[in-house]
Specification:
- The longest helix has 22 residues.
- Helices cover about 50% and strands about 10% of the residues.
- About 30% of the residues are buried.
- Helix 8 packs across helix 10.
- It is built from 13 helices and five strands.
- It has about 325 residues and is mainly alpha-helical.
C-alpha cells in the first residue's frame, strides 16, 4: 500500500509531529509551530468502496476516507440568514482553531527567544509552560479549570504571556533577562502589560511551572553586574569590585525588596566613581540598566550609608592594580 505523504520539518528534521490542517490547506509542525508546506489540495475521493479494505482492523467504517479522529475535537454549528432570506450554515472545527491559537503563541515565544539570544532548551521549556496556560484559557473540559485562574490569564495579551514566561525561564536557568531587554524586542506590549503578566504567572507558578524546582529563586545582582559590565566594556578590575559590592549589599540586606537590577546598577556606579575613570558616561550606565540615573545615585548613596564606602572600593581597585 502507498504510504501517506508527510513532509519533513526543516527545523526539527523529522515528520513525526507534522500534521495536515485540512481547513487551512497546509502542513504544520506541532513541535516548533513552523508551517512546513502551504497550498495543499486533497486529490482523493471522500468514499472508498474497495472490498479488500474491509475488515475489523480498519474499524467500524472501513470505507470512509479522511482525517483520523482527534481526541478533544469539537465542531460548532452556526446558523444565520443572508440578505434576502437565504439561510447560512457554517460548520467550524474548534480543534483546528485551538491548535492555531497554540501555534501563534509558540511562534511568539520562538521569535522573542531568539531575539533575546536564548537557547533551544530555554525556548522548549517556555513552550511547555505556554501550553499549560493555553489549556487553561481554552479548555476542552471547562468544569476542570479553576475559574479564577482562567480569568487572570484570559485578561492578558498573548504576547505578554509569552514574554513573561521567557522572563521566568531565563531567571530560573541563570541566564536572566531584564524587563528592559524584553521590551526592546517585544514592541507590541507595554511595560505595564509585561509586569502584570510576570506577576500573574508567578502567582500561579504551581500550575504553569509544576516541574521546575526553585523556579523563582532570586536573581543574583552579581550576575547582572557581570553581564552589564561586559556590555559596557568596563575593565575587569572595576567589574570585580562592583560584583563584590553587590554581593555584600545582598548579604547585608541593605536594599531589601529592591530589584536586583537596581542593586547591580548602584554597585557599578559606586565602583566607577571610586576608580576615578571618567571615560564612562553615568547616564549611559543608567540606560543600560533600564533605570534613571537619579534612582541609581540614590540607591548607591543608601549602600554607602550602610557601610560600603568609596574608600573600601578604592582600596580593592588598588589591590587589583598592584
Amino acid at each position: 500500500a502507498e504510504e501517506a505523504y508527510e513532509p519533513v520539518c526543516p527545523d526539527c528534521k523529522t515528520n513525526r509531529n507534522v500534521i495536515l490542517l485540512y481547513n487551512e490547506g497546509m502542513y504544520v509542525c506541532t513541535d516548533c509551530a513552523r508551517t512546513v508546506q502551504k497550498y495543499v489540495v486533497s486529490e482523493g475521493s471522500e468514499w472508498r468502496t474497495f472490498k479488500s479494505d474491509s475488515g475489523s482492523s480498519r474499524g467500524a467504517d472501513p470505507n470512509r476516507v479522511g482525517q483520523a479522529e482527534r481526541p478533544g475535537a469539537e465542531l460548532s454549528l452556526s446558523l444565520g440568514v443572508q440578505n434576502g432570506g437565504k439561510p447560512i450554515v457554517r460548520i467550524q472545527d474548534k480543534s483546528t482553531e485551538w491548535q492555531k491559537k497554540l501555534n501563534d503563541g509558540f511562534r511568539d515565544i520562538m521569535s522573542l527567544g531568539r531575539d533575546l539570544d536564548l537557547k533551544k532548551v530555554h525556548i522548549d521549556r517556555a513552550k511547555d509552560a505556554y501550553q499549560r496556560i493555553h489549556d487553561i484559557k481554552n479548555p476542552h473540559n471547562k468544569s476542570a479549570v479553576d475559574k479564577e485562574v482562567k480569568k487572570h490569564f484570559s485578561a492578558l495579551k498573548r504576547e505578554a504571556i509569552a514574554a513573561a514566561i521567557l522572563y521566568h525561564v531565563a531567571t530560573a536557568m541563570d541566564v536572566p533577562r531584564q524587563r528592559a531587554d524584553i521590551l526592546r524586542e517585544a514592541r507590541t506590549i507595554t511595560d505595564r502589560d509585561l509586569r502584570t503578566a510576570i506577576k500573574r504567572t508567578k502567582r500561579h507558578a504551581k500550575v504553569v511551572f509544576p516541574d521546575m524546582k526553585k523556579w523563582f529563586s532570586a536573581m543574583k545582582a552579581s550576575k547582572i553586574v557581570r553581564r552589564r559590565c561586559g556590555e559596557l566594556r568596563i575593565p575587569r578590575k572595576i567589574s570585580n569590585v562592583a560584583e563584590m559590592i553587590a554581593k555584600a549589599t545582598e548579604k547585608k540586606g541593605t536594599l531589601e525588596g529592591k530589584q536586583p537590577a537596581t542593586i547591580a546598577g548602584a554597585a557599578v556606579l559606586i565602583a566607577l566613581r571610586a576608580s576615578g575613570d571618567a571615560t564612562f558616561d553615568e547616564s549611559q550606565v543608567a540606560l543600560t540598566f533600564g533605570l534613571a540615573l537619579s534612582t541609581l545615585s540614590s540607591r548607591a548613596q543608601e549602600i554607602l550609608n550602610a557601610g560600603v564606602n568609596e574608600r573600601t572600593a578604592e582600596g580593592i581597585i588598588e589591590e587589583y592594580e598592584s
